[in-house]
Amino acid sequence: MKYFEFLRGKFFLIFVLILLLPLFYIFQPVKVEGMSMEPQIDEGENILVGKSFLVTDNLKRGDVIIFYFPLNPKKIFIKRIIGIPGDVVEIKKGKVFVNGKKIDEPYLRGSFEDFSSFPPVKVMPGTYFVLGDNRAISNDSRNWGLLPKKFVIGKALFSYWPPKKIGEIK
Predict the structure, then answer these.
(1) Is it the case that residue 24 has pLDDT exceeding 80?
(2) Has domain 29-168 been given CATH number 3.40.50.1000?
(3) Which residues are the active-site residues?
C-alpha cells in the first residue's frame, strides 16, 4: 500500500511538471536590474515576459520589451519601443517626435526626464528604436543605435513582485 502511495505522489509531481513546463516555454520570469525604467518598473521588480515567438510579430510603439544587449548579448536589458520599422524618430529638448509628430508619453515623470536632443533616425526593417523611461540615466538607442529584432526575448506583460506593484505592465 505504501508503495502505491509513493507512486501516486510521483505521478502527481510528474503531472504538475507536465502542466508547468509549457508555461515556462511561453512565459519567462525576469527580475529587473537597473533603474532605466523607473518610475514605472523598479529595480528588483519581478515581471513575467511573453516569449518572443508569441509576440515579436505584434510588437508596437509603447510596448516594454526584454532583449539581449546588442553590444554584449550576455546582458539583458528592458526598454520601451518608441520607433518601429519605417518610423523616423527625433528628440528635441527631451520631446520625442515620431514621423514629425510629438508623441504622448504619460509614463515620463519629473526627474526621470532628459532634455537633450537627438537627430532624426529612420528605423530600418527588422529593428526598433528603444528608450528607457528614466531618460536621464538610460543606456538605449540614443547611445548604441537601433535594436535588431533578433535580440528581442519578449514583451514585459505582468509584474508579480513586490505585491504593491502587481499588475499589467503598460
Answers:
(1) no
(2) no
(3) 36, 79
